[in-house]
Fold:
Amino acid sequence: MKPAAFEYHDPPTTAEACELLAQLGDEAKPLAGGQSLVPLMNMRLATPRHLIDLRNVAGLSDITISDTSVTMGSMTTQRQIELSPAIRKACPILTEATTHIAHFQIRQRGTIGGSIAHADPAAELPLITVLLDARIVARRADGTRSIPARGFFYSAFVTELDETEIVESIELPRLADGEGWAFEEFARRQGDFALVGVAATVTLTDGKYSGARLAVSGVASAPVLLPVAEHLVGERPSPALYRRVAAAVTAGLTPGGDIHATGEDRRDIAGHLTEVALAAATERALQLTDRPAGRR
Amino acid sequence: MRRVRFELNGQTVEHEVVPRLLLSDFLRDVLGFTGTHVGCEQGACGACTILLNGEAVRSCLMFAVQVDGATIRTIEGVSPDGTSLHPIQQAFHENYGLQCGFCTPGFVMSTCALLAENPAPTESEIRSHLSGNLCRCAGYESIVQSVRQAAWELAGGNCAGKADGDDE
Ligand SMILES: Cc1cc2nc3c(=O)[nH]c(=O)nc-3n(C[C@@H](O)[C@H](O)[C@H](O)COP(=O)(O)OP(=O)(O)OC[C@H]3O[C@@H](n4cnc5c(N)ncnc54)[C@H](O)[C@@H]3O)c2cc1C
Ligand code: FES
Ligand code: FES
Structure:
């Protein structure tokens, strides 16, 4: 099908974009990469009267890296993220997760701000923002606010953002020195939305876990954080531990089923991917901390 | 209505467009460049892939109003002189990389982008980069073989998609 008629606006500044949103209210939608919104419009699942294209807004696709964080303008494309050597160095888990989004032709247009605002429960970038507790900077006509990612995603396609707000930038804290990370997902075919995605970080001190984080997508209507640290801290890494902890933290999940997988399958996949992710993150942490000993 | 001005296969085009017009329909139905095919209009099949400022994108997920100032290359602009085959097209021809040909323009455009960025891709890189193009009849083996041959033929040279300064 073809999209319904709409009026097109391409303001040059965020201030003007916010002004338009304030005037037009829920008749209007921002247009970023269009990789989720345009399919919805083509299927007439979305019929906005006005589109506010952010493509000409100055300064929305800058990447800034500091000692503590990586900040990306909302119009930074997924392809820009994937190909940035500076991001690969500062936040490799973001690079890894991004390469799992769709296909390269879609990542060429799709943006980080669009992914966050769209909030698909299986999407990679919301998962990473929840894991690392990113800040999402949103702007409206009368000011800006900085929203913690862990309080941003309510349920499928529903977020803290109101319809007069524009995501301006996303600030991701960098991993700490020596922190190991892993991103794992399972999809039926390359480029499909994942059935389940898992992102983890671990820190080791004197051979024992001193910290860990774990977030899972595809098992609820928004990414969930699982309390992995309380199972790991003080323990020494071992395959038996990964298995036991993965089973324990995913046991209480109650994902829904759909044509792609039953709820039980999704929980099993989450358990398996958690085990794999803990092993991979631990391996990375050991490589980082054992470097002087020259192992591997 | 909005006026857009852009470069299409080396020629400047200026046209009035309504906002709801998809770029794929603009190219096909308004400008007559029917080599860009439309399979799904959801971004899933890749038949409508074109080069926008040198990069492969889905033309069914963009509006014609958005191309103002851009440089676009479609399958019609891949041949070096308008009549002979580009090495990528020649390779698809020689390796039976197509049967009905519906998917072929999309595969050729994606291959242009792949080889411009990575002139010597491994087989798994080829499969990964072409995972967003679906073919319902040729089978993928002959397509992968076509891309390998094209990469080999082009080694040292470059792909039309970027050789003439499309990007930057
Ligand atoms: C075939 C296919 C496969 C895909 N597979 C995946 C996948 O595996 N994983 C994945 O995560 N995604 C996937 N996607 C979707 C992804 O590519 C989109 O890029 C992303 O979901 C939305 O980003 P966008 O920039 O394209 O946003 P758009 O489509 O332009 O916008 C999406 C929504 O967000 C709103 N919005 C956009 N930007 C802002 C902003 N700055 N402020 C406020 N609101 C805003 C829009 O109004 C709209 O409601 C897939 C898409 C396709 C077509
Ligand atoms: S028609 Fe554009 S991807 Fe199928
Ligand atoms: S050759 Fe027929 S779809 Fe590919």
Observations:
- Residues 263-289 of chain A form the longest helix (27 residues).
- The CA atoms of residues 59 and 75 of chain A lie 9 Å apart.
- The two ends of chain A are 56 Å apart (CA to CA).
